[in-house]
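Onboarding guide, step 5: your first structure request.
Type a short instruction followed by the sequence, for example:

Predict the 3D structure of this protein.
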Amino acid sequence: MKTFELDPRLEADTLPLGDLPLCRVLLMNDARYPWVILVPRAVAVSEVFELSQENQTQLWREATALGTMMKEAFHGDKLNIATLGNVVSQLHIHVVVRYQEDASWPAPVWGNGDPVPYDLSLQGERRAQLIAQLEGLTF
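The system replies with structure tokens like these:
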């Protein structure tokens, strides 16, 4: 029987934050944006419609709760929530806080410029802030 495994590309590009009821929560290692990725802990799923109706609802609950918290905590101008999967087929949702003055505005963040990895200080600060916020989410 297969078990959930994170795609190696997601693992290489992110930092772990924890788990919600359905999803693994990852911080994208790009300090230009508050950017979190949700990955449902399901085996061999690449599309939202491959999840059960219950898990589809839970995925949206988690994405919107996390997005609401992030937009407020980081004082964003806009929140982007998207599934793409063109490069990494494992189902995952990007939750990105955007600012009118950010490096990519108003274009999407994907493929726009080069990622700026977190330095250790900011990485620790950002992870601690997000983990504290995750602990406060209820479903």
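Each response can be followed by summary notes, for example: The CA atoms of residues 46 and 130 lie 26 Å apart.
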